[in-house]
Design a protein that fits this description.
Chain lengths: ~220, ~100
Amino acid sequence: MRESFVRGVRLGIPYAVVGFVLSLSFGVVARQAGFSPGQAIAASAFVFAGSAQFAALAVFAAGGTLVAAVAAAAMMNGRFLAMGVALAPSLPGGPVRRGLQGQTVVDASWALANNGDGTFDRWLLFGTTAPQYATWVLGTVVGVYGGDLLGDPNRLGLDAVFPTYILALVLAEIRDPTSRRVALLGALIAMALVPFAPPGVPVLAAAAAALLGVPRRQDTA
Amino acid sequence: MNVWVLIVGCVAATVTIKAAGPVLLGGRELPPVMLRVIAYLAPALLSALVVTAAFADGRELHVGAETVGMLAGGLLLWRGNPLVLAVLVAMVVTAGLRAVL
C-alpha cells in the first residue's frame, strides 16, 4: 500500500511537470477570457479535469450559454464514466468512500494504475494523482499572474502539449497485438464521429473498441 | 454568464461523472468477460483522445502546426525518450512552424 503510493508519486512526476505547463496555459487563457484570478484558480482546484476546463472555457469565451458550457465539460469528461466503471471493482468501502476515491481518477493515473487484467492498484492511482494535483493548481496560479509575460499560449506551441502527453500514455498501453488493434479501432471510431457528435462524445463512443477484448484467446496478429 | 455558476456547474458535472461508476458498480465481482473489456478500455479511450486532441477543432478535422509538433514528440517517445523531453520538442516544433508559416 505505502510502497504503491510512493511508486505512484514517482511515476506521476513527469506527468505532473507536463500538467504544470497545461494548467499554466489554462490560467493564461482563462484570464484572457475574463475569469478573475480567483475564479481561474478555483476552476483548476475544484474541477481538476483539464480537457473539461478547456472545453467549458472555449464555450464561455465564444459567448455560449451556461448550459452549453457545462455540457461541453461533461461530455469531455465522458471518458471518466468508462474509467470509473473499470475502476469500481478495485475500490473497497461503502458507496460514499468509493465515490470519493473515484475523484482521484485522471488520465495518466488511471492508465498507470491499470494492472492490465481488469484490476487496478488504487494506492498507485492515489500516489500518481497527488503530484499532478499539486502542479495542476500551481500551474494555474503561475499562468494567472504571469500570463502577461507569455502572450498567446498557442504561439509558444502549448496546444501541442496535451496530445503529446496522452500519446505517451497510449504508447505505454499498446504492448500487445490486441491492444494495438483496440487503439486503432478507438481512434477510427472517434475520427468518424467528430463531424457528427459534440466534442467529447467521440472519445466516449470509442470505448466500444474495447469489445475486441471479449474473445478469451488473444489470437496472433 | 456568471463565471462562479459555471465553475460550480463544471465541478458538479465532473464529480458526478467520476463518482458514478465507483458508487453504482463497486463492491462486487465482475464476470471475467467484463474484466477483459475493462483491460482494453485504456488503449480505446486514450487513442481516441489523442486523435481528437490532435485532429479535431470542434466538429471539424484539421491538421495544424500542433499536429506536426505532436508527431515529432511521438517519434521521440516511440524511441524511448522521456516524456518531458518529448513534450518540449513538441512545443518547440509547433512554435517554430507557427513562427515560420
